[in-house]
Amino acid sequence: MRRLFAALLTLFLASGPAAAAETGDVVVTLKPLHSLVQGVMGDTGEAVLLVNGIASPHGFSLKPSQIRALQKASVVFYVDEAMETFLDNALAALPPRVRRYAFAEKAGIDILPLREGGAWDAHHHEDVHHHGADHHNGEEQDHAHGEDNLHVWLAIGNAQKMVAAIAAELTQIHPENKAIYAANAAAFEARLVKLDAALEQKLAPVRARPFVVFHDAYAYFERAYGLTAVGSITIDPDQPPSARRLQEIREKITAAGAVCLFREPQFDDKLVRTVAEGLPIRLGTLDPLGIGLQAGPALYGTLMTNLASDLVECLAQKG
Prior knowledge:
The chain has helices at residues 2-13, 31-41, 64-72, 88-92, 103-106, 156-173, 178-203, 219-225, 243-256, 270-276, 299-315; strands at residues 26-28, 48-49, 75-78, 99-102, 110-113, 129-130, 148-149, 211-215, 229-234, 260-263, 282-285. By secondary structure, the chain is an alpha/beta fold. It has a four-stranded parallel beta sheet with strand order 2-1-3-4.
């Protein structure tokens, strides 16, 4: 299995697209999206990444240089303004010539809702819908009452749709590179198929083992591989959960026999340790953004492989 994953990562690292005219007018918000975009662009240019390093989209603020990059761009790729809230004013101020591509709205992805409360039934993923222009009525909604889960990149099936959409969008901007985008997208999608099969095999032994996450970010990953998440400490990482919510999660851990509680590297783990105190549960770490990974085409494969490995490492332990 280790050899298989090493081979898959090598495939993601080895990209050899044909050379083309340089383009530097593409801006992307998050590392996983940037990986997909750069994988399609190949040697035709370098996409600008906005949220880099240990930064999280929660509480992120644009620098003046990044605002200038947005103003000069031909296209901006992002998930949705509800995910990258730091884009609100910047998008409104963009010149009309700048194309805006929101994956949640335009890539044909089935969008899952955020699950209500912190303690859920396992495999509660039935209420999918298409996110479109008429989905929101303009009124502010409570996170606990039907808002969208926008961590759409955490399913390889979604990533395949996104890669195809990226190739089509980039071709609209630079039709001279159409053949290169198509070839790069096809190669990337082929690697995704192999990665999906490897993750399915790796995660199969721990599907039935219940666990709790820091926030409701992993529903797409859980649905893809039949995993048994039973709750999250918080819905919105920017808003601390109430004492009642923390108690409910502790009760859910006991009732469900959850074996692992997962923190995230971009957030303080104080809440995680508070919830786990005195309970027979192991602590692990899941990184949905690739915080510690180098940006580039290889990042997406590494991110997904790391998620699977970190889940298995904690869930497969005995006792």
